[in-house]
Amino acid sequence: MVEREEMEDLLLRYYEGVTTEEETIRVEEWLGTSDENREIGWQIQTIVLAANVAQVSSKLDVKKALSNVHRKMKREKVGSRYQVLFRGMQRAAAILFIPLVVSWCMLYFDKDVQVAEMMEVRTNPGMTTSVVLPDGTEVILNSSSSLQYPSRFSEGERKVKLLGEAFFSVMKDKKPFVVKALSGSEIIVHGTEFNIEAYKESEMVQTTLVSGKVSFSYFNRGKKENLMMQPGQKVVYDIAQERVVVKKVNVDVETSWKDGHLIFKNTPFEEVLKRLSKQFNVEFVLKNPALKHNSFTATFTKQRLERILENFRISSNIRFKYIDDGNINTERQVIEVY
């Protein structure tokens, strides 16, 4: 029982993005051991997501919402899922803002509520998280990303807004699923798996199609154009130049981040550093320009950054130096590369 309670507390911190690297590995290994563990993880994640319903809490009567939840739980035969969920909510009281949790519960159990509230999920630098949308679509968010979506989709379409990188497993439906990205670009699908990278600072939108079909919508000289993608293709949209490049890629390499892996196949060193920077929330300063011409092939599975850099040092004599500038306000560790 003590171990179960300890893991529930750890799961709360994990879905809030505040676990250490060791704790993150422990949680992910625990989640992978059984369906029951994954079910508990889903319940805890649901509680954490309730903390994003700030707009809901300002509009709903909290006492009325709590009374509504108790009434419905007494009236209906509550299964083990809801029992664990409600116990988890009580245990989360010291961490989560209770009015937010209660307000979300009212929306979840009371089907008469018609107003769709906007939800937002964010990931901290160096962390990933997953969320299940109202239609059953599964989304995995990469580091420093955010996803906005309604608490319920409209009758005509399913539309979300992404800033950063995410992997989508879209639930099939007659209603089109639309992902709004940077500079008016959109990805329109009906049921498929694809990856989108659209970080604001990069001024690029990159979409990789794993399965199914998607239409990539973008602006070209002020005019809206659509490009139909095929599985295994990657579209790179240069926002500044309004130019699109389509190329064939290895989808396992492009989407390996969602499983905690890093796969490089003849990958330019600058791209390697970029992916390491995003994965571990560090900043690399390339001091040896000649390294730009190097490419690498390697696979790393949930390894620490120090171990990965050591592999590069041994195999290619590349040296890394951690810089301490004494500035406690520095958000990311700086590493020089020689």
Description:
It is a single chain. The protein is α+β, with helices and mostly antiparallel strands. The protein has 3 domains: 1-114, no CATH class; 116-255, Jelly Rolls; 260-337, Phage tail protein beta-alpha-beta fold. The chain has 10 helices and 18 strands. It has helices spanning 2-15, 21-31, 35-50, 54-57, 62-75, 80-91, 98-109, 251-255, 269-280, 305-316, and strands at 118-122, 129-132, 138-141, 146-150, 158-169, 177-180, 186-189, 193-198, 204-211, 214-220, 223-229, 233-238, 243-248, 261-268, 282-286, 295-301, 320-323, 333-337. The strands form 3 sheets. Strands 1, 2, 3, 4, 5, 6, 7, 8, 9, 10, 11, 12 and 13 form a 13-stranded mixed beta sheet that branches. The chain is globular, with a radius of gyration of 22 Å.
Please write out the topology.
Blueprint: H1 2-15, H2 21-31, H3 35-50, H4 54-57, H5 62-75, H6 80-91, H7 98-109, E1 118-122, E2 129-132, E3 138-141, E4 146-150, E5 158-169, E6 177-180, E7 186-189, E8 193-198, E9 204-211, E10 214-220, E11 223-229, E12 233-238, E13 243-248, H8 251-255, E14 261-268, H9 269-280, E15 282-286, E16 295-301, H10 305-316, E17 320-323, E18 333-337
